[in-house]
Amino acid sequence: MTIKHAGIALIIGVAISFVSGLLFPGNVLINPVDQLDYSQAVGAMADAPTLAHTMIFLSILGMLLIVFAFVAGIYPLTAQGTSVANTLLRFGIILSVIEWSIVIVGQGMRHIVVHLAQRASSAGAEDQLLFTEVAGEVYASMIAVFMSFIPLFPIATILVGIGLVARISTMNLPKVASYGLVVMGIAGFITYILAMFAPSDEPTTYLTVFNTLLFFGTFCFLVLGYSMWKGDEGLTEES
């Protein structure tokens, strides 16, 4: 039953992460601002601190459920053989867990940003300036943490996708979703290379592309979670 429980955890975790991202103040639906404009991003969180704290907590919970799904559900399947595909899948899951752990750390830093913004709103003029400056510095550090580990995202996604494609022999929906992860990873890696080395006056363009890829990956994960719950071929303890 572990794989079925992991499938349910993956579905719930992805859904929670998706909703928390949509409802986080400053993102898409609630007072959207340019996330690369630190003062605007911090200001959006400061205007709705309770909502921000709640969405951060839900995001962390979603990440933990996704980690559980892969570690308890898919990773044990790689012990069923010594093929190259199993090795790639195993390595991809390890890289994914590292990446998701970094996301959790970053969300913890975001908690601190919201807390500092709250302190600034109730402080005197001198302390208010100090809290605001520190909040901006922590936010910038959070972005740096995300950017430092962002190359893991496409590499891990490609490896997981390749490993799952090899496990599923029938051309069905979960196999299509696995191919989707490979395509998503390749597109993400190309976007990263362009963002790092191609001159651009619009860095938000690359951020939009990454968010679009994550949106696409959400559906791939939901399909895989449902297939794990159903016990489709290649995603069960017996396969």
Architecture overview:
This protein has 239 residues and is mainly α. The protein has helices spanning 2-23, 38-47, 49-74, 84-121, 125-149, 152-167, 173-197, 203-230. 79% of the residues lie in helices and 0% in strands. Helix 2 packs across helix 4 (84-121) and helix 7 runs antiparallel to helix 8 (203-230). The radius of gyration is 19 Å and the shape is elongated. The two termini are 14 Å apart. The mean pLDDT is 86.
Q: Which keywords apply here?
A:
239 residues; mainly alpha; elongated
* End-to-end gap: 14 Å
Tally the helices.
8
Helix content: over 70%
Number of strands: 0
Q: Beta-strand level of the residues, as a percent range?
A: under 5%
Structural class: mainly alpha
Write down the overall geometry: elongated
**What are the low-pLDDT stretches, counting only 5+ consecutive residues below 50?**
none
* N-to-C series of helices and strands: HHHHHHHH
Q: Averaged pLDDT, please? A: 86
**Rg from alpha-carbon coordinates:** 19 Å
Major pleated sheet: none
